[in-house]
Amino acid sequence: MNSTSTSDSMFTLREKLKRVRICMFTTSDNAGGLTSHPMALQDAEDDGCLWFFTAAHTRLASDVPAMPNVNLSFAEPSDSLYVSVSGRAELVEDRARMAKLWNPMVAAWFPKGLDDPELRLIKVDPYSAEFWDSDSSRMVQLMKMAKAALTGTTPRTEPGEHGKIAL
Asked: To which H or E segment does residue 86 belong?
């Protein structure tokens, strides 16, 4: 496993997230229960802040102010990339930023457009991240797993790159 310096951390995180845009956004409720929501990442800023759209009436929007520590789990199995981000989330009502991030995919969820009174942003300020990024192709990995299953051994796969990013 390798660790990156703080100066390289944001760049590393943004580069990994460019390859996968959908995550499971996990929040806690007041009783300590965990709930995950599929969310599309709208932007990863130079300072590491991550931006998402949501609606004011969602459970996600009610969980964030009450329990702002969240986890974002990104996965692109076809590319063998997995990223886990822990951070502090907040609801934001910034119409200028909404306009900047607006795109046709968001419009599909918010047909009233930027004037929708339900429209909110969630800003996540990450404090740590971890990633797994394999260099082996999926076919090579599957063949090694099949061989291991047939021989009763564990797969001999290259672990690829694994790193922790302190933000």
From this structure: strand 81-92
Q: Which of 37, 48, 43 is nearest to 21 (CA)?
A: 43
Nearest to 37 by CA among 97, 165, 124, 149: 124
Give the span between the Cα atoms of 82 and 163, in whole angstroms.
Answer: 11
**What secondary structure letter does DSSP report for 101?**
H
Q: What is the pTM of this model?
A: 0.80
Q: What domains are defined for the chain?
A: 2-166 (2.30.110.10)
Q: 120 near 61, Cβ under 8 Å?
A: yes
Cβ 20 vs Cβ 50: under 8 Å:
no
* Ranges of the chain with pLDDT below 70: 1-7, 135-152, 154-163, 166-167
Q: Pull the structure tokens for residue 55.
A: 């609606």
The single-letter DSSP state of residue 162 is E
Question: pLDDT, tens digit, for every residue of 116-160?
Answer: 999 999 999 999 999 888 765 554 455 555 555 666 676 555 556
Q: How far is CA 23 from CA 76, 88, 150, 151, in A?
A: 10, 16, 34, 35
